[in-house]
Structure to design on (734 residues):
């Protein structure tokens, strides 16, 4: 089962490696991991996408909570939530492909944020599945480079993760 | 909340001052370049005693045993680079057994970090997976508060070792000193009280149980809950079994004690655990050496109540019906209080009859031979010390014999590496134990393999006149390895012979101690008596030449179920 775990942790050097080390030491997998400071610069918020049975997820949240730098842990996927991932994709845009790329970006509600004679950089935001579909919809030979942020997630409505 | 009026001090002065504020009496360590400023401050004071070991690993083991054998906190001090890497085994050993300890490490100056400086290593990175927490101090202004946090984290919640890495320039820089009385950390708030609803559910289950068992682990010893646990067990009249780390958590000589369980547990303990309908697990973690194959254990329907301060220990290997997260003394108080309010345990005559039948199997019986049997040595040690010694142990067959044949009535008396299984701890453990308990009888049960892993500490023992009694069960083999090779590798004894052994008597004498070689069963007791009376104040190295074929039984082979034991009399 895919889970999205949100972690609020002290914004201190080494905190990220404690989390990453925990996952590798205990054999848990990380699909994506994003981290950045919050509105309170002393705290970082991390979103981890992982897979595992309920027992494994229970251990993951318990082990994360045990880390001294970790303030709070929530399994976002336990309830209603929103998740987004950002992708920047550089594509070849010449000849008839130039028009086609523009059209594809529009269909997926992406934005072209850099233009050169032969390339576009398209910015696309959405669930990981949407990003995957966009990549699949393009002619693979035209994709020059992709970079993805990994998933960020937040609970819907009154579900709030803060100190 | 400053306790001191502000005065300017160097980082090194602050380190020593903080240790004094923490009432630390003993620091085990080894000097080197990065910690010279700190050592200079030690030189200028006499409130804290510094114990110079012969290898950093021993400093950490000794600090670890200092904690294990008392309610005080062990502190070790090592230099950067190899000082730290030598200390890692000691830190990992303490971490596996949740022992509170603070390890101070020198580091190259902040402006050299990352430049592959002389004796530089990434201390925080290397120790991260084997500490409860670690710190790198980057500003002398943070030093005092960091040390306060280190002691706070090490000793609260599930205890564990904390490493503080201190660069050399930090120990020279000056700042105004104040030591906080307490620290608040929003990210670290260990649970204390157990959930009352869960505790009530537990009481209900306990009173209805027909085949109950109390299963205790190192948590009972570490949290000083032995008395409260004993009160509870007496009140309920249930059989009690303990893990290797739980020895002494409930009196070993009490008829309710059915012995250690697990891989080398007694027949009655393993059968009762497997056959129980309600398990009350107290400060234990159902590890692989205890329940064997978790699927085999789960094949019998039963209710498990699990009390532990660490939520991640609960439901890790075994399904738990009533989890109680909390500090053991508090939870046990609640349980005792609820039981005082009424309720009688269910009828258990049939259960006890069954247990006595299992006990009648006398699974620890062993055959005497012309050689000295290792079990016999431990039995005699128990008699000679009247069951009141601190016993440290290394790792291997001798460790199991110590655990099986010495009956510990008190907690913190059995000092060994249960989780990590570190050979070489025995002698430094005896040193740490003696510093925490001056004048106590301390025996180190070891083997000719283990003892050689930290034998250099005989020199430390001479310097500080530590009257350790070393019980060397010498079979000329790495006994536990040989036992497995005999049983599971068709007697292919690959690398388990220890050849070219030193003459331990001469070796002990060379270090300035007393050496004895004991080869006949009838000489065992007189030798022990002599060591504990005539040579009471000396380190005595007793080299017992034992039967090389002796094996540890009962045995649950790795991956087998608890009731699938191999017994000595079946072979």
């Amino acid at each position: 089962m895919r889970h999205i775990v949100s972690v609020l942790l002290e914004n201190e050097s080494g905190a990220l490696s404690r989390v990453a080390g925990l996952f590798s030491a205990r054999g848990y997998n990380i699909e994506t991991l994003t981290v950045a400071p919050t509105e309170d610069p002393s705290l970082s918020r991390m979103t981890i996408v992982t897979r595992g049975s309920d027992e494994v997820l229970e251990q993951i949240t318990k082990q994360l909570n045990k880390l001294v730098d970790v303030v709070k842990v929530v399994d976002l996927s336990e309830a209603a939530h929103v998740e987004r991932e950002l992708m920047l994709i550089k594509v070849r845009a010449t000849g008839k492909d130039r028009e086609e790329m523009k059209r594809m970006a529009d269909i997926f509600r992406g934005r072209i944020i850099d233009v050169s004679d032969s390339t576009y950089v398209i910015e696309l935001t959405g669930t990981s599945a949407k990003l995957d579909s966009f990549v699949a919809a393009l002619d693979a030979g035209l994709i020059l480079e992709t970079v993805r942020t990994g998933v960020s997630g937040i609970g819907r409505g009154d579900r709030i993760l803060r100190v | 909340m400053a306790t001191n009026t502000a005065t300017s001090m160097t980082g090194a002065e602050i380190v020593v001052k903080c240790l004094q504020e923490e009432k630390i009496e003993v620091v085990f360590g080894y000097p080197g370049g990065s910690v010279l400023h700190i050592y200079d401050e030690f030189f200028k004071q006499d409130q804290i005693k510094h114990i110079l070991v012969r290898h950093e690993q021993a400093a950490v083991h000794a600090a670890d045993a200092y904690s294990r054998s008392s309610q005080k906190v062990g502190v070790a001090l090592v230099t950067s680079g190899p000082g730290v890497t030598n200390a890692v085994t000691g830190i990992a050993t303490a971490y596996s057994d949740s022992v509170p300890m603070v390890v101070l490490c020198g580091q190259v100056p902040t402006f050299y970090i990352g430049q592959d400086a002389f004796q530089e290593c990434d201390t925080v990175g290397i120790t991260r997976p084997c500490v409860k927490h670690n710190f790198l101090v980057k500003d002398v202004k943070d030093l005092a508060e960091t040390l306060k946090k280190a002691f706070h984290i090490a000793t609260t919640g599930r205890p564990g070792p904390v490493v503080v890495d201190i660069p050399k320039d930090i120990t020279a820089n000056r700042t105004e000193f104040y030591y906080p009385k307490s620290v608040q950390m929003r990210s670290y708030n260990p649970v204390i009280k157990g959930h009352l609803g869960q505790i009530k559910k537990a009481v209900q289950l306990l009173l209805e149980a027909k085949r109950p068992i109390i299963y205790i682990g190192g948590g009972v010893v570490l949290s000083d809950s032995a008395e409260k646990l004993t009160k509870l067990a007496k009140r309920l009249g249930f059989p009690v079994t303990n893990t290797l780390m739980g020895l002494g958590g409930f009196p070993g000589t009490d008829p309710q004690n059915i012995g250690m369980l697990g891989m080398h547990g007694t027949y009655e303990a393993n059968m009762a655990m497997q056959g129980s309908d309600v398990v009350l697990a107290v400060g234990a973690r159902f590890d692989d050496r205890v329940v064997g194959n978790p699927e085999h254990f789960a094949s019998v329907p039963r209710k498990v109540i699990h009390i532990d301060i660490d939520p991640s220990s609960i439901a890790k290997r075994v399904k738990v019906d009533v989890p109680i997260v909390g500090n053991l003394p508090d939870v046990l108080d609640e349980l005792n209080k609820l039981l005082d309010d009424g309720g009688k345990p269910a009828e258990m005559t049939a259960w006890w009859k069954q247990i006595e039948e299992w006990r009648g199997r006398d699974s620890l019986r062993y055959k005497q031979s012309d050689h000295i049997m290792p079990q016999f040595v431990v039995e005699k040690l128990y008699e000679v010390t009247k069951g009141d010694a601190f016993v440290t142990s290394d790792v291997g067959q001798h460790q199991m014999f110590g655990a099986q044949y010495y009956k510990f009535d008190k907690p913190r008396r059995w000092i060994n590496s249960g989780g990590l299984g570190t050979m070489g701890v025995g002698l430094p453990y005896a040193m740490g134990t003696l510093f925490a308990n001056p004048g106590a009888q301390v025996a180190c049960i070891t083997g000719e393999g283990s003892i050689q892993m930290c034998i250099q500490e005989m020199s430390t023992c001479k310097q500080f006149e530590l009257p350790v009694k070393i019980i060397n069960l010498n079979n000329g083999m790495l006994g536990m390895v040989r036992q497995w090779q005999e049983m599971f590798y068709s007697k292919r004894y690959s690398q388990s012979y220890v050849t070219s052994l030193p003459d331990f008597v001469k070796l002990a004498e060379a270090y300035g101690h007393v050496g004895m070689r004991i080869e006949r069963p009838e000489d065992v007791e007189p030798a022990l008596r002599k060591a504990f009376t005539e040579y009471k104040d000396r380190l005595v190295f007793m080299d017992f030449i034992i039967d090389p074929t002796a094996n540890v039984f009962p045995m649950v082979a790795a991956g087998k179920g608890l009731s699938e034991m191999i017994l000595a009399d079946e072979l």
Remarks:
- The mean pLDDT of chain A is 96.
- The helical segments of chain A are 15-25, 54-66, 96-107, 128-137.
- The beta strands of chain A are 2-10, 32-37, 43-51, 70-75, 81-92, 111-115, 119-126, 143-155.
